[in-house]
């Protein structure tokens, strides 16, 4: 018997992973949640059939979405995390002693519940006293805050589902408002490779550029995401992602990482020509 | 048609309308839908119109709309009945609709609610008859007067100073108009207005009937009153004689489909003849089946549907009022007369304290935030919320409004509030429309009689109608509304730099 998980990356391209066992399959109020065990990628989580994370490659995503802004902001104490019910971003953030307060806003409490039970590799730090979870709409939450956060990390699903509202101008604008005068927002920025992902990526970028003074994009290689080539957005009121990188300060923290380092930080902002052109088109 | 004797004969008691079990058991049927399903299984060879032959002759259209849609775009035939002379499934569908709405008769309308409005006016008014109506009527009402030659007697809808919106009619003003025009044949009321405001429908109906006048109700924005709970009274329950109920707005049917409802004292056979004066003889079965299906849905699930809509809108109102400067109004406006009731499913929002005209907020929502709302006028916007909406989308609207305030807020100075200008009817709309005319530049038209409509659209309430005097105040308002970006329609000159006026006045 062979059991395979397949995700269509486009209408004519798919990625398949051989599954040992399906551990969870349920429908929450918002989406379908599945957890599988596999030989190659270990345990993995899918939402509505879309790959969210695998034990094997989640470190890339979580390190890159967290350490890049943390190495730029001189003292991020109050952080807002939107989405991220798997806990991976929280795990990375709680490694910083200067972080005093983390608000986590996840629309689907069931995702957190399932991840705590089945994915302790990422959902390990929800009990940290600095973490304050809220189970509500991210746009609604951020709308009610002003001048409060040093850093906002938007770890959303794709823009076609519960995460749709997190790719809009009203959302980015409200994030701007919720940030302090030197705040940074980092978001999951989709992929430039396949056409439909690229359209979503450009749209998101256009909306961020309209809202923030500094808006740059950086990349990482994530094997289980469509095309493997993934982007993140770095939007900021004051700090430049490369000029204001304080490499010695970050290295002095002595955080052990598997993907991120301060040289790669700089390199990640140097993008392929076709991606630069796409971004330039909407800037 | 026989004139009314009094209101007792036509009023439907609440009990009669709410005989729940009987009503619901028949309402599970959808005769037009069923006839179409049956028709599809017969696999007839079509040597009749439409020429696309179930879509096969127009592949591009079939690709775009879908094969299912094209296979039921068919002509009247034996088993599918005929909208001009219904004897089988359309007749049954109309009877079920009448029952669902608590009407004596219901007509399927496929030429828009405009055709329902015109049919009810043309059924009771002929040339020279007077009809009492508020000025904030839809353009279709005055168009009907152009067609039939009736004389409008306008009642000044009260204006809410704070919001700059036209309200309902005061009972005392209706009474004055009736006393001053005892020869009028009908009274027409909006239930509710575009903004959700209701007049004292029951009392006005009783008053009209006591003076032997027909009671006509434009319920283009009130279909849900018949199905939801704790909503304002509907026309049939209030004892009115006619209602044009726009099923395609809150009722969920396809655009352009609508109902004309009649009370017990209306000669439905005559109304059918009037409808057939202007109605297509090729009634679309897409529209007809959408009416049938939507009627069934509302009859069976309407309570829950509008309960959910009300909750969504209440939530939005609370959050929007919390943003500051915006005012999403509701029942607190009720004053027992010109605002006798309020339709809580309407999300009407005043924007003046943000320093932006409603039309400006409307444009920002669309251009900057990819949010399309129903309309913006000088001081207000209306977001249409229905069963198809979700909290997720409501959050987007609230989030965008909050951002617009943060980024675009201005001082309120220089904002025009008044939108209502008392019309001076010099001659009938028909006379004004059909007389010899000439074209004048906007400024030079002051003092002349207008030969055409000027409308601020949406919501399509006339600023000028044919046969009315053009004043300096009106010209200033037209310029201002143009300047604010309102879509102005009506005149032959699309730019509205010139107006057609009556020659030799």
UniProtKB/TrEMBL annotation, chain A:
The keyword Ubl conjugation is annotated on this UniProt entry = no
Instruction: Kindly give the InterPro entries that the UniProt entry links to this protein.
Output: PABS (IPR030374), SAM-dependent_MTases_sf (IPR029063), Spermi_synthase (IPR001045), Spermidine_synt_N (IPR035246), Spermidine_synt_N_sf (IPR037163)
Q: Give the enzyme's main class according to its UniProt record, as a single word.
A: transferase
Tell me any Pfam family this protein matches. Answer: Spermine_synt_N
Q: Which GO terms describe its biological process?
A: spermidine biosynthetic process
Task: List the GO molecular function terms.
Answer: spermidine synthase activity
Ranges where the PABS domain occurs: 2-237
Return the EC number: 2.5.1.16
Transferase found in the keyword field = yes
Gene Ontology cellular-component terms for this entry are: cytosol
Q: Which UniProt keywords apply?
A: Transferase
- Alphabetized CDD domains for the sequence: AdoMet_MTases (cd02440)
Instruction: Check the record and name the HAMAP family matching this protein.
Output: Spermidine_synth (MF_00198)
Q: Per the similarity annotation, which family is this?
A: Belongs to the spermidine/spermine synthase family.
Recorded protein name is: Polyamine aminopropyltransferase
Natural source organism: bioreactor metagenome
UniProt lineage? unclassified sequences, metagenomes, ecological metagenomes
């Amino acid at each position: 018997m062979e059991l395979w998980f397949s995700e269509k990356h486009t209408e004519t391209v798919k990625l398949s992973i051989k599954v040992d066992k399906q551990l969870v399959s349920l429908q929450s109020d918002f989406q379908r949640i599945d957890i599988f065990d596999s030989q190659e990628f270990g345990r993995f989580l899918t939402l509505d059939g879309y790959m969210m994370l695998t034990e094997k490659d989640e470190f890339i995503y979580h390190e890159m979405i967290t350490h890049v802004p943390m190495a730029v902001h001189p003292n991020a104490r109050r952080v807002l995390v939107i989405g991220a019910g798997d806990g991976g971003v929280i795990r990375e953030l709680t490694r910083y002693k200067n972080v005093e307060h983390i608000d986590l806003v996840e629309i689907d409490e069931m995702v957190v519940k399932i991840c705590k039970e089945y994915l302790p590799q990422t959902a390990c730090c929800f009990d940290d006293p600095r973490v304050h979870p809220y189970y509500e709409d991210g746009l609604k939450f951020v709308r009610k805050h002003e001048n409060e956060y040093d850093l906002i990390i938007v770890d959303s699903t794709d823009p076609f589902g519960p995460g749709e509202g997190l790719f809009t101008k009203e959302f980015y604008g409200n994030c701007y408002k919720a940030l302090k005068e030197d705040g940074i927002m980092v978001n999951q920025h989709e992929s430039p490779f396949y056409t439909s992902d690229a359209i979503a990526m450009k749209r998101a970028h256009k909306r961020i550029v309209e809202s923030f003074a500094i808006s740059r994009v950086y990349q990482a290689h994530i094997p289980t995401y469509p095309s493997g080539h993934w982007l993140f957005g770095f939007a900021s009121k004051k700090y430049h992602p490369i000029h204001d990188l304080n490499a010695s300060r970050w290295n002095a923290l002595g955080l052990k990482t598997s993907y991120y380092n301060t040289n790669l930080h700089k390199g990640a902002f140097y993008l392929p020509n076709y991606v630069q052109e796409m971004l330039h088109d909407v800037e | 048609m026989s004139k009314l004797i009094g209101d007792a004969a036509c009023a439907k008691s609440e009990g009669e309308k709410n005989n729940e079990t009987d009503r619901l058991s028949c309402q599970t049927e959808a005769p037009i839908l069923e006839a179409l399903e049956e028709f599809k299984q017969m696999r007839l060879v079509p040597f009749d119109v439409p020429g696309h032959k179930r879509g096969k002759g127009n592949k591009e259209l079939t690709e775009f709309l879908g094969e299912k849609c094209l296979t039921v775009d068919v002509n009247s035939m034996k088993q599918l009945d005929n909208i001009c002379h219904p004897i089988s499934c359309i007749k049954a569908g109309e009877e079920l609709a009448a029952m669902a709405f608590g009407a004596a008769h219901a007509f399927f309308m496929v030429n828009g609610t405009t055709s329902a409005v015109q049919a009810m006016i043309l059924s009771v008014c002929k040339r020279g008859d007077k009809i009492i109506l508020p000025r904030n009527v839809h353009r279709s009402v005055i168009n009907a007067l152009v067609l039939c030659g009736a004389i409008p007697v306008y009642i000044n809808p009260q204006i809410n100073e704070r919001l700059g919106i036209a309200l309902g009619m005061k009972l005392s003003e209706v009474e004055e108009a009736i006393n001053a025009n005892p020869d009028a044949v009908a009274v027409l009321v909006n239930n509710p207005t575009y903004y959700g405001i209701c007049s004292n429908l029951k009392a006005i109906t009783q008053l009209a009937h006591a003076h032997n006048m027909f009671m006509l109700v434009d319920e283009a924005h009130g279909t849900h009153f018949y199905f939801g709970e704790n909503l304002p009274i509907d026309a049939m329950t209030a004892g009115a004689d006619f209602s044009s109920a726009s099923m395609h707005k809150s009722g969920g049917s396809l655009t352009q489909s609508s109902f004309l409802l009649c009370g017990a004292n209306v000669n439905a056979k005559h109304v059918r003849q009037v409808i057939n004066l202007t109605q297509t003889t090729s009634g679309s079965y897409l529209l007809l089946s959408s009416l049938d299906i939507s009627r069934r849905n509302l009859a069976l699930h309407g309570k829950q549907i509008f309960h959910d809509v009300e909750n969504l809108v209440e939530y939005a109102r609370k959050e929007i009022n919390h943003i500051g400067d915006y005012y999403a109004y509701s029942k607190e406006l009720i004053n027992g007369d010109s605002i006798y009731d309020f339709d809580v499913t309407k999300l009407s929002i005043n924007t003046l304290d943000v320093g932006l005209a409603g039309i400006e907020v409307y444009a920002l929502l669309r251009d900057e935030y990819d949010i399309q709302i129903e309309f913006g006028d000088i001081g207000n916007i209306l977001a249409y919320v229905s069963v198809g909406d979700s909290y997720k989308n409501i959050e987007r609207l609230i989030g965008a409004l909050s951002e617009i305030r943060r980024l675009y807020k201005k001082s309120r100075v220089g904002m025009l509030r008044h939108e209502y200008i008392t019309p001076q009817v010099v001659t009938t709309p028909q006379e004004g429309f059909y007389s010899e005319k000439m074209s004048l530049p906007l400024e030079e038209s002051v003092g002349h009689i207008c030969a055409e409509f000027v409308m601020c659209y949406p919501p399509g309430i006339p600023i000028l109608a044919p046969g009315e005097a053009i004043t300096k105040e009106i010209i200033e308002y037209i310029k201002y509304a143009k300047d604010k970006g309102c879509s102005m329609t009506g005149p032959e000159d699309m730019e509205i730099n010139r107006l057609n006026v009556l020659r030799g006045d």
